[in-house]
Write a structure and sequence with these properties.
four-stranded antiparallel sheet, alpha+beta, three-stranded antiparallel sheet
Length: about 190
């Protein structure tokens, strides 16, 4: 199965996938991410987790899902895409930028718009990460839900089959017991000899 995602910006893009429902041998799923140029960016072979890669070029990024661990089985996969803007710089550059930002904050202390913009950016970033953790929780709950649903159907069918087997065996036992005690009406001439 192949899934294609168009990426226009260049921040890191980690899609999160989670095996929700699996019928077969294994819950592992191999995922390969190809860049628009055809190069393999990232590969993961696991039942759950993130695929982190940096989108350096604009175009169609291709995710290929391979289900070879789970022979002759089906699998339902939950996909969640998110763009994370992380600091991909050296620690010394980060310290210099923080120092410059502090100086700018001191200069712009009376500038209300910059303070509101910074607070809005921080709030947006934190809400995004809250949504990310909420998505992880939803994925975990849905994994349990689909597992319980498949087990419920399995148990229901086996219970029905075993109930029918018990009723049928009881009927057959009753039939054989009746045949054991069948007595024929006999006349004086047909009486068995002792």
């Amino acid at each position: 199965m192949t899934f294609t995602q168009t990426i226009i910006s260049t921040p890191p893009l980690p899609p999160t996938r989670w095996i929700q429902f699996c019928v077969g041998h294994d819950r592992h799923l191999s995922v390969t991410v190809n860049a628009p140029g055809g190069l393999v960016i990232s590969t993961v072979d696991d039942a759950q987790g993130q695929i982190n890669f940096e989108a350096k070029e604009t175009g169609f990024y291709q995710m290929c899902f391979s289900n070879f661990h789970n022979r002759f089985g089906i699998m339902q996969v939950f996909l969640s895409f998110g763009v994370y803007y992380g600091n991909q710089q050296n620690p010394s550059k980060i310290k210099e930028e923080e120092k410059n930002k502090k100086e700018e904050i001191r200069k712009d202390l009376n500038n209300t718009l910059s303070i509101i913009a910074d607070a809005t950016y921080i709030l947006e970033n934190r809400v995004f990460h809250m949504f990310r953790y909420y998505s992880f929780g939803r994925m975990r709950k849905s994994v349990d839900y689909f597992l319980l649903l498949s087990n419920s159907q399995y148990i229901t069918w086996w219970s029905t089959a075993l109930s029918l087997l018990i009723v049928t065996s009881g009927y057959l036992q009753l039939l054989f017991l009746k045949r054991l005690f069948v007595t024929k009406t006999t006349t004086e001439e047909e009486k068995p000899r002792c």
